[in-house]
Design brief:
The complex is a heterodimer of chains A (about 60) and B (about 180). Chain A has about 60 residues and is mostly beta strands. Chain A has no helices and 5 strands. In chain A, strand 2 and strand 3 form a beta hairpin. The radius of gyration of chain A is 12 Å and the shape is flat. Chain B is an all-beta fold. In chain B, strand 8 and strand 9 form a beta hairpin. Classes of the chains: A mainly beta (about 60), B mainly beta (about 180).
């Protein structure tokens, strides 16, 4: 899966209805459970998948 | 606590059973402007700060080390007329810059909001509007106490968190919010 070319929404090859978030600063992410990331990462969430219920992205300042 | 900035009448309760109070006592400068174009009562008034000052502030009561969410709303109105330069200012909370807020002459009735999570370091939380150009303003200000033990514990280390994105996947109901 290729990374998002830039921040924001995009469409990824091979998937439909997918949103990508390319994040370059520290974020605090809750995806049904809490995970702290301190490096660059990409979240791919297929909104057709039942396992994805909610997403909260918070930026650390 | 829910503050309807610029409200020049008594407190009221909205359809979500949230009681909104005037900003008297939380800020000491600025002027009221009534903006009847909005359907939401909370946004039918704002406070703007025409005085020549680099920063204007609100002071909110807090309990030290407790975790809070501060929600700030800005709904732009031409409170100085259409010829006035549009406002550009920083939103700062406890001296941390949250974002640069900028409106244009075509931004009338457009809005933006911020949600910031933090741990109070003293018995007050300061919300600053730091002028860049034009005249800063604010529409509403909300303070919510959160569970300090279970929610966003990383803020106990002095970090502030700013909401970037909330998604409720698959929902067919309208927008939901934490009251």
């Amino acid at each position: 899966m290729e990374r998002c070319p830039h921040s924001g929404s995009c469409s990824c090859p091979g998937s439909t209805n997918v949103r990508c978030f390319d994040v370059h600063v520290m974020f605090y992410v809750l995806v049904e459970f809490s995970v702290e990331y301190t490096r660059n990462f990409t979240i791919l969430s297929d909104t057709n998948a039942s396992r994805m219920h909610s997403l909260i992205i918070l930026q650390g300042l | 606590m829910s503050i309807d900035c610029g409200l020049n009448t008594a407190q009221y309760t909205d359809s979500n059973n949230i009681t909104w109070v005037p900003d008297t006592g939380y800020t000491f400068t600025g002027q009221n402007y009534d903006f009847v174009a909005s359907d939401t009562k909370t946004f039918q008034s704002l406070r703007y700060f025409p005085e020549d000052r680099s920063k204007d502030c609100y002071v909110l009561p807090a309990i030290p080390s407790n975790t809070y969410m501060v929600r700030v709303n800005f709904l732009f109105a031409d409170f100085l007329g259409t010829d006035a330069p549009p406002p550009m200012f920083y939103l700062e909370i406890d001296a941390v810059a949250i974002d640069l807020i900028s409106f244009t002459a075509t931004s009338i009735s457009s809005g933006i909001y911020y949600e910031v999570y933090l741990s109070a370091t003293r018995d007050t939380i300061y919300v600053f509007l730091a002028r860049v150009t034009g005249v800063p303003f604010i529409s509403s200000l909300e303070l919510r106490a959160l569970d300090t033990v279970t929610m966003y514990r990383i803020v106990q280390q002095g970090l502030l968190l700013k909401n970037i994105y909330h998604a409720n996947f698959g929902s067919t109901t309208p927008i939901i919010r934490y009251l």
